[in-house]
Design goal:
Elements: E1 2-8, H1 26-34, E2 36-42, H2 48-57, H3 73-76, H4 83-89, E3 93-96, E4 113-114, H5 127-130, E5 157-160, H6 168-183, E6 190-195, E7 203-206, H7 207-210, H8 239-242, H9 255-285, E8 292-298, E9 303-304, E10 310-311, H10 317-320, E11 321-327, E12 338-340, E13 344-345, H11 349-357, H12 371-375, E14 385-389, E15 392-396, E16 400-407, E17 410-418, H13 436-450
Parallel strand pairs: 1-6, 1-8, 2-12, 2-13, 3-4, 3-6, 5-7
Antiparallel strand pairs: 2-11, 8-11, 9-10, 14-15, 15-16, 16-17
Length: 457
Amino acid sequence: MNVLMISVDDMRPLLGAYGCPEMITPHIDRLCAEGVRFTRAYCQVPVCGASRASLLTGVRPTADRFVSYASRADQDAPSVPTLLHHLRDNGYELVGNHKVFHDRADHAAVWHRYLQSRLPGFPGPYYGRDAMRMYDSAMDRPVRAGVPTWVHAGPAWECEQVEDVAYHDGEAADFAIREIGRLADAAGPWMVAYGSVDVHLPFTAPKPYWDLYDPTALRLPDHTERPVAIPEQALHAWGELRNYCGIPASGPLDDLAARALIHGYRAGISYLDAQIGRILDVLDRHRLWDSTIVVLWVDHGFTLGEHGLWCKHCLYETALRVPLIVRAPASLGLPSGAAIDTVVENLDIYPTICDLAGLRTPAHVEGRSLIPLLRNAGNTLPGRAYSRYRAGESVRTDRYRYSEWREDDKIVARTLFDLAVDPDEQCNIADEETSRSITESFSSELDALRGSSRLSG
């Protein structure tokens, strides 16, 4: 079995097939119609490097491992065979581009072929922002001490009349299309990894994708204020967004800027959707659907003003919940168009791909294969997802999200949301007397998880 792995950046489930009819995403919707979508999938860490390193190694993050956007699998877990190494060791030819790992230097030698961009002027290893066509006048404020100059790349959004290949994801799609065509008649199995930079900041897409959405019809979130009884640890200053010119250094955004960001985010998703459509078309053209597994995953979500927050870097649903879509050949017996509501984790992707490809799952992998769910899509089973960010740890069940923050191994803050009655996480009930037993049970569960990793550290 061949594998097409589509890795997406910063995309919450803002898709037509995920219950957002206002979104124009026909190609991802097609993938959902022909495959299985998980409606409650969650990342391990709401930041790029750590999330991808955890997913691709199959290893949970800890307080010392996979902790930041700069985390690398080859540094934090150097002896662990990643999913890519496991496929290569089993005879797969690996083709990829940035962004699969967060840092293109992370396990760079694992690839047989890898896209080196033709676009000039990339000053550092973080390829995404550098691939954007930024305005020449973008550097309109002093560079903050300790922040790399390339972070101050320009405005937080851009709408220009350019071809799709002017931006990274169009160029990377061209590369993936060429490589799939080259491999179509290959004697051995292959994996093509298409890694998108969209919809990471800055929100950039060719103008036709902006034109798909009427800016006057865009709604701001219903809840943009700080929720009730929320500790400071559950919030952040959204410094990632504030690095861009035109964004205030402190305080809230005005409605005009908020609408522009939401517009750009939606445009970026539709632009990415079009590139994915072009890649799926090449599977049609070469009649590869009967021999190719397609998996679409996302490193983490993105908060668009909810709770008074932007970006990721928090333990709310908006930052942790992600799309996850699996489409497999009919010979593997998976349903088409099914939605699975069981809570699952990005950590489950590694063993699931192994099972679908008929490979043994390495013993170190901490996720669970989703094959039993995929083959019985009508059965919603109990599930749990564990996430963490900095000093915070979180567990998501069918009904609740519980998070706690520790200093010197003492709990200093807690949140508990009953998502059955409070799906927008507006009222923290962790300290209510009626919630005490639930809170303590979840805290004990996180204690047990903390010492259960199959790797030390």
